[in-house]
């Protein structure tokens, strides 16, 4: 590793581009590439550029701060955001030609006031709750919400550019909620049509639905996790050629001998049953290595899969080298693409009782990030 980094995240931007183009070809509709949360830990700005180069018509983020970063970096394409709070300042987003998402009449009223202040119409997408029971207008509120949206459009306060919702169980193809949510979405679209709304795009499918549920693709799909090569429906055979973009690696800092009975790390939660060697990896929970992975995770040291022993510390973890003594400075791959004996983000998720989204999004801290590929 260069530059004296103790640990680093290596992101393959060619893999990002491959995944975007593969999913665009598979779905046959517009691609909304989700780069919120620093592109799920991969780095928002480089990923955004790679996604655009691969043909993504839209980018999507959660917050207005993320909008500002993208526009300040020179991105001028279609951009959707969806998570705001009361008294949010919309002026910059309206001037920057960003598509704002509204969940309620109150939110539409705030956007209307901002549009009046700016002196230009906003671009607004309407989110309806079809069963996730999270963001979006509840079914009982659809009619007044959509009617206010139409009135604002007629008054020149905004253009309604989209209507959308979000699946709760798309990673389980047989779950009855999928059919129920899509039927509800169709109901919302029919009501919007009756009220006189003609959005540019209608979108419902997340990564799992984009791959597994063709009937939910409508005019566009919102793809987050699959952009990064991670499986949005582990255990479901779909055969999509996704390439993992993230490898997390470090250098072995120390190797030492343990005798039978020697205990390891805080709380002495693991004791060596026999003589062995232990390796010190300079990354801990400050870098996003889950404490829940104590005595559960595996990493690859010098090409061999090794178990984490003892409790994960703030700055470091210990791994059982099984009596081997690889040289200090040897490569440690915490997780990365499958193959070569490497642990994957999915392996870590299963070891910790979580999901691969959390593993890649939380990794980082003091790690540096390095990019490879033609668009790096």
Automatic annotation (TrEMBL):
Pathway note: Amino-acid biosynthesis; D-alanine biosynthesis; D-alanine from L-alanine: step 1/1
Keyword presence, Isomerase: yes
An example Gene Ontology molecular-function term: alanine racemase activity
Catalytic residues, chain numbering: 36, 266
EC code: 5.1.1.1
Entry-linked Pfam families: Ala_racemase_C, Ala_racemase_N
Binding of substrate, residues: 134, 314
Keyword field: Isomerase, Pyridoxal phosphate
Domain Alanine racemase C-terminal: 245-372
N6-(pyridoxal phosphate)lysine modification, residue list: 36
Reactions that this protein is recorded to catalyse: L-alanine = D-alanine
Name of the protein described by the UniProt record: Alanine racemase
Source organism per UniProt: Nocardioides plantarum
Gene that specifies this protein: alr
């Amino acid at each position: 590793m260069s530059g004296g980094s103790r640990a680093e995240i290596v992101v393959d931007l060619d893999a990002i581009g491959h995944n975007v183009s593969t999913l665009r070809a598979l779905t046959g509709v517009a691609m909304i590439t989700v780069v919120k949360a620093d592109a799920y830990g991969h780095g928002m700005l480089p990923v955004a550029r790679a996604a655009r180069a691969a043909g993504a018509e839209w980018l999507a983020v959660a917050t207005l701060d993320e909008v500002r970063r993208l526009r300040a970096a020179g991105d001028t394409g279609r951009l959707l955001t969806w998570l705001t709070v009361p008294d949010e300042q919309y002026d910059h987003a309206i001037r920057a030609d960003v598509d704002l998402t509204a969940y309620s009449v109150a939110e539409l009223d705030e956007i209307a006031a901002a549009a009046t202040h700016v002196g230009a119409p906003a671009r607004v997408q309407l989110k309806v709750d079809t069963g996730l029971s999270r963001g979006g207008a509840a079914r009982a509120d659809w009619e007044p919400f959509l009617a206010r949206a139409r009135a604002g459009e007629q008054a020149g306060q905004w253009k309604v550019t989209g209507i959308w919702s979000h699946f709760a169980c798309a990673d389980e193809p047989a779950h009855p909620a999928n059919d129920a949510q899509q039927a509800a979405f169709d109901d919302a679209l029919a009501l919007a049509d009756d009220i006189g709304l003609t959005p540019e795009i209608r979108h419902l499918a997340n990564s799992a639905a984009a791959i597994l549920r063709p009937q939910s693709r409508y005019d566009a799909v919102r793809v987050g996790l699959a952009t990064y090569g991670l499986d949005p429906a582990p255990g479901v055979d779909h055969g999509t050629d996704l390439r993992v973009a993230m490898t997390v690696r470090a250098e072995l800092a120390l190797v030492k001998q343990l005798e039978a009975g020697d205990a390891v790390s805080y709380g002495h939660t693991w004791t060596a049953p026999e003589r062995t060697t232990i390796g010190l990896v300079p990354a801990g929970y400050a870098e996003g290595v889950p404490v829940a992975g104590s005595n559960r995770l595996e990493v690859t040291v010098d090409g061999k899969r090794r178990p984490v022993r003892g409790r994960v510390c703030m700055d470091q973890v210990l791994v059982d080298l099984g009596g081997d003594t690889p040289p200090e400075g040897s490569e440690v791959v915490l997780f990365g693409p499958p193959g070569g004996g490497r642990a994957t983000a999915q392996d870590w998720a299963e070891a910790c009782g979580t999901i691969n989204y959390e593993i890649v999004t939380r990794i980082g801290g003091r790690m540096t990030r390095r990019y490879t590929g033609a668009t790096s």
